[in-house]
Amino acid sequence: MGFWSLFEVASMPILEVLLVSVIGAIMATNYFNVLSGDARKSLNKIVFVAFTPSLIFASLAKTVNLEDIISWWFMPLNIGMTFIVGGTLGWIAAKLIKPKPHLEGLLIAMCSTGNLGNILLIIVPAICTEAGSPFGEHSICKSKGFAYSSFSLALGSFYIWTYTFQLIKNSSLSVESQEYIDLVVPLSYPTSDKKQIQLTIHEGSVSSDDKKEESSCKLAEILHKFLEELLSPPNIGSILGMIFGATPWLKKLVMGVDSPLRVIQDSVTLLGDGTLPCITLILGGNLIQGLKRASIRPNIIITIICIRYVISPIVGIFVIKAADSLQLLPADPLFSFLLLIQYTLPPAMNISTMTQLFSVGQEECSVLMMWTYLVATFALTGWATVFMWILTS
Q1: pLDDT (tens digit, 9 = 90+) per residue, 327-358?
Q2: What is the pLDDT of residues 70-114, one digit of tens each?
Q3: Are 233 and 52 in contact (CB under 8 A)?
Q4: Residues 65/59, Cβ–Cβ less than 8 Å
Q5: Where exactly are the transmembrane stretches of this chain (predicted)?
Q6: CA gap 221, 62 in Å, rounded
């Protein structure tokens, strides 16, 4: 498979995202005013509640079975590693370059959260069908590639709608806290040392029973928030998809031409097909607003690009090489290729959905998405070539 053939395969999905984003940007201009701020927010809620869970459920229930879930046990660990590596590097970068408080969570999310579903669903099967593909017979490779990508989509959704969701949510809470402080205690308001001492004494007078009760309330609140995020619609779609995929009689009930409840499969698939176009249109709509109003330092853009497309892929090579030497991976180079690509993906477009849901960093997110997806056109192509050379040499 030649370099330029691979370049075409890897760049097409990214270019598709950029072109649809341009349409969304045009629709959000004052001339058309179709994707206004309120319209994008409402559409985001529909994507979150209906489209994304449907896409995940349909992909998993159709392509994954119990044997696959067992044999692919390393994939959730590998995805966790991508989040740990990117999140740690993003946290270090945030401490060094000190972005605005409402952008710190967005910076870490951009570094840690890759597009683990939509891009893979297009790239991996497309590589399988190219002439000279090193992954065996085209139809078998394509079927495997779609199954691997669907599983990655579901697992990635679980990480995204818990870890990344909390990052963006915390950013919005920090903004609300700062607004409250600015309202109640203006920065120019003088506070004497005496008042500070009195406040310290008052805090110290709280009884131990009150502290225990407060700690238990906080623990209950944290547990409630975790369960709330764990049971978000995308995660419910992931859980149900794996249950239906791993249970043969449930799978036959809704999946397949002869299934008695195939109307459920058709309906869910129809809803799921709207996920990528809607997210991409919203991304474009946010982009046009971001170009007008966003002020983001170039060092933040450069930092995210270096972490996502330079440091993370190099770490990924060492991780997969070590796992392969320890015989932790299936004897399928396509599986190893997908694990390597997971370290090289552009940021997940769901980050844009979350910034829209919480009304924090929307314009900055759009600008970051634009630059990271432009660079991804070249980074994905180059690293895909390196990965295939490593796996076939």
Answers
A1: 899 888 999 999 999 999 989 888 888 888 88
A2: 888 999 999 999 999 999 999 999 999 988 888 899 999 999 999
A3: yes
A4: no
A5: 12-34, 46-64, 70-94, 106-127, 147-168, 300-320, 366-391
A6: 37
Q: Which residues pair with 114 in a beta bridge?
A: 347
Beta carbons of 387 and 318 less than 8 angstroms apart: no
Which amino acid belongs to residue 264? I
**Helix (H, G, I), strand (E, B), or coil: what is residue 116?**
coil
Pull the structure tokens for residue 152: 């990655």
Distance CA 195, CA 116 (A): 52
Cα distance between residue 365 and residue 346, in whole Å: 13
Q: Give per-residue pLDDT as tens, 113-152.
A: 998 877 787 778 777 776 667 787 877 887 788 778 878 8
Residue with token string 């690509």: 341
Q: Which SS3 state, helix, strand or coil, does residue 5 take?
A: helix
- Please list the residues that pair with 149 across neighbouring strands: none
The candidate with the shortest Cα–Cα distance to 122, out of 279, 245, 15, is: 15
Hey, what amino acid is at 125?
P
Residues in the chain: 393
Residues near 367 by beta carbon (within 8 Å), at least 6 away in sequence: 287, 290, 291, 294, 296, 301
Instruction: Please tell me the distance from the alpha carbon of residue 274 to that of residue 47, in angstroms, as a whole number.
Output: 8
Q: How many helices and strands (H and E) does the chain possess?
A: 20, 0
pLDDT of residue 290: 64
Say which amino acid occupies 391: L
**Joined tokens for residue 112:** 């840690």
**How does 70-103 read in b/e, with b if 16+ C-beta sit within 10 Å?**
eebebbbebbebbbebbbebbeebbeeeebbebb
